[in-house]
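User: Can you predict the 3D structure of FMN-binding negative transcriptional regulator? Sequence below.
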Amino acid sequence: MSVFIPRAQGDIAALIAAHPLAWIVSNGPAGFVSTPLPLLAECDGEGRVVALFGHFAKRNPHVAALEADPRAAILFQGAEGYVSPRLVSNPTWGPTWNYAVVRFETEVVFVPDETPSAVERLAAHLEGTGPGAWTVAEMGARAVPMLDHIVAFRAWVLSEQATFKLGQDESAQTFAEIVERHPNAALADAMRGAARKE
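Assistant: Sure. Here are the predicted structure tokens for FMN-binding negative transcriptional regulator:
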């Protein structure tokens, strides 16, 4: 078993929550189509991601491509960065790139009745729910015509492949040096989170 798998199913949902912008890639009548969109993870009781929820602009040609063939790969990227040998004391250590990524194979289903909910849920996730958080209601009458131009979808997960290559194969000393000295604080935090506890 690879040391680069997430420690728990919840780690995948946490990556999506922190890095919601995904690439949706599919093969349409005119060839490959790709769209970057922020998505929300929908999980079962054990924290496993079972679907991804979002919305497309109706004028995006990707909508027609997915109506013709609903299968799509959805790609998320979390913290990542180059790790220089200058960060460690071992003179023979070579450079590497640390990263956390998830690839889902999905079947996309458009759910137009859920379009208002898709916008509200995404705004709540990105804005938060505390005092001063923006809500869709603040758009007033402008919200209705906007909703006419978008359509919600749910991408049901058929399979997933997650790779969290975050230094789990390093010696304790090298790992500690990278975490302490790396200039990318988000990557260092991700490494701490992925560290295997003995």
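The chain has a mean pLDDT of 94. The chain is about 30% helix and 35% strand.
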